[in-house]
Amino acid sequence: MGKIFIAAGLALGLSFGVFASDASASSGKAAPSQEWTFDGVFGNFDRAQLKRGYQVYQEVCAACHSLSQIYYRNLSEIGFTEDEVKKIAAEFEVPRGPDDEGETHEDGEQIMRAAKPFDKLVQPYANEQAARAANNGALPPDLSLVTKARKGGANYLHALLTGFADAPEGFKMQDGMSYNVYFPGAQIAMAPPIDDDAVEYADGTKASKDQISRDVAAFLTWTAEPELEDRKRIGIKVLIFLIIFTAMLYAVKRRVWAKLH
Q1: Which whole-number Å values give the CA distances from 233 to 15, 35, 44, 229, in the listed order?
Q2: Using one digit for the tens of pLDDT, what is the confidence trace for 187-222?
Q3: Max intra-chain CA distance, the chain
Q4: Rounded to whole angstroms, how far apart are CA atoms 193 and 88?
Q5: Which CATH class is domain 2-70+123-226?
Q6: Has this prediction a pTM greater than 0.90?
Q7: First to last CA, the chain
Q8: Taking CA 211 as the corner, what is the angle to CA 209 and CA 216, rounded to the nearest 5 degrees?
């Protein structure tokens, strides 16, 4: 039951936040810069962290938010084995396609089958109408690209999830709102969604609020940029090539001009 409330909070926080009417609070506090393993030219993803982040997404966020750009097979890229990916996928059901002898029963209900690695991650709602009906008319955003869509990326997401506090004296709060120092307007339409021990990590890592926020922020950075490591490797190779090529050109230039003099 606690996870359901947490998931609902995430849905509200990421998509239904409301700005305060006070013009002096029109922008949130800048998210502090955090150290991430994927920062820098030589940065890369911590596979253990990504697996924990997937667990947070699945147990907390997936009740309301989809990851429409991710297939179960992609989970092998963050450290899950082929057998683990098959087992994870098989825990979910997807509509059976026409190649499986029809899509519906005679009574009109969809025929379902266990998901396979080539399927996309199961979405929490059948369609937009169902999503809006479950969330007071609002549509929970897909999280595939959320760290690219928000200024600050992983820093902002981590700050948002850990930035709840008591409103300062004299600050006028609207009914049903929570105070968050990093959210534009400082008022957000959700209670704090992450707390200590909100999940029980499979690898035994202590699930503090800060750790949970870091892990899901890192995982959602990967969903937004799964090619990040390959891009950096190619960039380094190109840089090395340019350095060598420049050195060769300089050597040729010196030799040519030496003959002319």
Answers
A1: 35, 20, 10, 6
A2: 887 678 889 999 999 999 999 999 999 999 999 999
A3: 93
A4: 25
A5: mainly alpha
A6: no
A7: 85
A8: 100
